[in-house]
Design brief:
The protein is mainly alpha-helical. The chain is flat and about 115 Å long.
Length: about 140
């Protein structure tokens, strides 16, 4: 009798992939990047040195110190807001000056209409009179 179970051929590939990922994860925690050449992903030669003493992490649970100056009252707050608003408006006016007025265009004088009976030029009339008549065939087309 034969079994219906199929062999799992991807198990070695998954194991190798997990091993490589674990290696990358562990190498990210080390300081070997300082010793690698720049082409292999190390620090460049002109990178600044690390500080000798690490900067301390601030304590997020510490109690905040009290303020030395009292908070602003309503009148001081309104005065400060109006000062800031006027300063903002003056900066906007300096940054975006109003556009220049459009150039003044003169109104065009309408062209004179030709007279009903234009003056005829006698030289043109004489040239038209000397012109031979057109062919009758061309006039039919």
């Amino acid at each position: 009798m034969m079994s219906n179970a199929r062999p799992n051929n991807s198990a070695p590939l998954v194991a190798a992939l997990l091993l490589v990922l674990a290696g990358f994860g562990l190498s990210a925690c080390s300081g070997m990047g300082d010793m690698l050449p720049e082409k292999a992903g190390g620090l460049p030669a002109n990178a600044p040195e690390r500080p000798a003493n690490a900067v301390p992490t601030p304590n997020v649970y510490a109690v905040r110190p009290t303020r030395e100056a009292p908070p602003l009252d309503a009148d001081e707050q309104k005065k400060l807001e109006s000062d800031l608003t006027s300063l903002r408006e003056s900066q906007k006016a300096r940054a975006n000056p109003p556009p220049p007025p459009p150039p003044v265009t003169k109104k065009k004088v309408p062209a004179k209409k030709p007279a009903k009976n234009p003056v005829k030029n006698p030289a043109i009339d004489a040239a038209a009179a000397k012109k031979p008549p057109a062919d009758e065939k061309q006039q039919a087309n």
